[in-house]
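Limitations
The C-alpha cells in this dataset are predictions for the assembled complex, not deposited experimental models. Users should treat interface geometry with appropriate caution, especially where small molecules or nucleic acid strands are included. An illustrative entry is reproduced here so readers can see what is and is not provided.
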Amino acid sequence: MIVAGCDGGSATQKVIVTGSTTLMPIAEVAAEEYHKQHPETDVLVSGMGSSAGIESVSNGSSDIGTSSRELKDEELDLGLVDAPVAYDAIAVIVHPDNPVGELTTMEVRAIYAGVITNWSELGGPDLEIGLVNRDEASGTREAFKKIVMDDAEFDRGAVVLPGTGQVRSVVADVPGAIGYISLGFVNEDVRAVAIDDVEPSEDAVVAGTYPIQRTLHFFTLGDAQGATADYIAYVLSPAVQDTIVRDAGFIPITAKEAVGG
Amino acid sequence: MADEPVQRAPSESGENGLKLMTRATYVKEAALKNLFMLCAVVAVAAVVLILVFIGARAWPVVDNPGLRAFLFGTEWSSSNDAYGILPLVTGTLVITIGALLLGAPLAIGTAIFLSEIASPKMRAIVRPAVELLAGVPSVVYGFFGLVILRPIMADLTGGMGFGPATASVILAIMIVPTVATLTEDALGSVPSGIREASYAMGATTWQTIYKVLLPAAKIGIIDAIILGMGRAIGETMAVVMLAGNAPQFFQGLGEPISTVTSQIVIDMGYASGVHRTALFGLAVILFLVSMSLVALVRLLARLNERRT
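Predicted assembly:
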C-alpha cells in the first residue's frame, strides 16, 4: 500500500499504521518526528484496537499493524512478520483514596471474575467494587485476560469502556472502582497497586518480577519494504527508544538486552 | 407512489403553456423533470441497496448460530462464540422506554407551552432553544452525561453511574426537539375555530388544552412519540458512552447494560466470521424496527385522514 509518486515533490509516500490504542503515543510521535526528517514520507497513524490492526495489515489495508498482544493461534499463518518495539506493564489501578495498596494475582482474578465484590473482603472499607473492563477489541484486555484470568471468565456485569483514557478517568472519579491500563498511562489521578508484592515499575519489568507485563509489536505482511522498513528501523533506533518510548511510559525494547535478560 | 408528485407538477404547467413554450424551454423542463426524478430514485435505491447489502451479509446467521439461537439466545459473548441478541434487544427496550417516559411528557409540555401559552416574545426565545437541542452532536450529549450526570446518578442509584438511568435521561433530552416540534405542528393544525368555540363556551385555557386540543391532535402526538422512539432506538454515540456496555439483562437502573447499536459499535472494529455476520444481523433487526415505526406512522396518518 505504499503510494510512490513520480514527481518526487512534497509528501509522495504514505505509510499507514493501524492498531493498538496503547501504542498510539509511540507510533504517532515517532511518525511526526520521522516526517520532519523525511518530508517525502507521510506516516498516518490510527488507533482502533490491536485486533483491528492485525486484521488491517493482513488484508493489506495498512502497512503496519500495531498490537499490544501476541498473535492468536488462528493469526499465526497470516504471514505476519513481528518487530517488537517496547515492553509494557499493565497496572491495576484504583481510586487514590482507596487504602488497599496491594493485591495478589489470584485476588485480581477473583475481583474480575465477580467472586470478590466488596473492598472489605480485601482489608479495605465496606465499599462495593466497581469493575471497569475494556472492550473485547482491546489488546490490553486480551493480555490481561491471558496473564491474570487464566481460564476464569470476566464478570459479565463489568462496565465496558472502549479506551484507556476513559478507564483512567472513571477510576479516578469513582471511589470503589478498579481498572487496568498500561503503566505508561498511570498518572496522579489514580493509584497503581502492587501485584504479588511488586510495585509496577520499569525496573520490575526489566527484572521480570512484575507479573502483568507484555511486549508491544509492529506487524508487517511479509518483510517490511521501503519507507515502511525505514520507519520501523527509526522506531527501533536509540533516538526513539530512549526518548519517545520512555516519555510515553513504556520500556525500551533494548532495556532487557542491556541487562542480559 | 414516490415519483407521482414529481411528475404531476411539470406536466400541469406543460399543458397550460404548451403553445407558448419554445423548444429550449421544453428541453429544459424535461431535463429538470428527469433530474428531480433521478434524485428521488437515488434515495429509493440507497434504501434498497442498504437493505440488500446488510441482508445478504446477515443471511448466514440462519445457519450459524441459527435463527433460534440468534433471536432468543440469552448470551452475547464473542469469546464464547455465543451470539444471542436478547440481552441487547431488552437493553435497547429498557433505555428507550425510560427515555420516552421522561422525554415525551417534557416535550409535549414544551409544545403546549409554545403553541398555546407562550407570548410571541417568549416563543422567540424558547423555540430556537429547542431547535438548538436537535443540533447538538450526540457525542457532546454523551460527554455531558459522562462528566456531569454520571456522578449524580452514581450517588442516586449506587454503582458507578453507568446504566439505563443515565442513558435514558440523556436520551430523553435528545428526543425533546423531535417530539416537541412535531407535537407543536399537530397542535397548530387543529383548526382555530375549535379552539375559539371552546373558549366561547367558557372553558379555561387548561380545559381547552386537555379536553379539546389534546384529543383533537392525538394522532399527531402519537406520531411524534413514535418518531422520538425511533431516534432513541437508533442513537448510538451517547449510549456507548453512558450505558456501560455490559451485554447482560437488566439488573437495575444503575447497573451497566448494552444496546443493539452500542454493541455494533463496540464489536465492529475487530469482529470476523460468525461474529461479523451476527453484527449484520443486529443491523437488519434495527432496520426492520425503524421500518415498522415508519409504517406505523403512515398507518396512523391514514387513519387520521379517514377520521377528518
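Some entries come with short summary sentences. For this one: Chain A touches chain B at residues 48-49, 51-52, 55, 128, 130, 132, 135-137, 156-162, 170, 173-174, 176-177 (CB under 8 Å).
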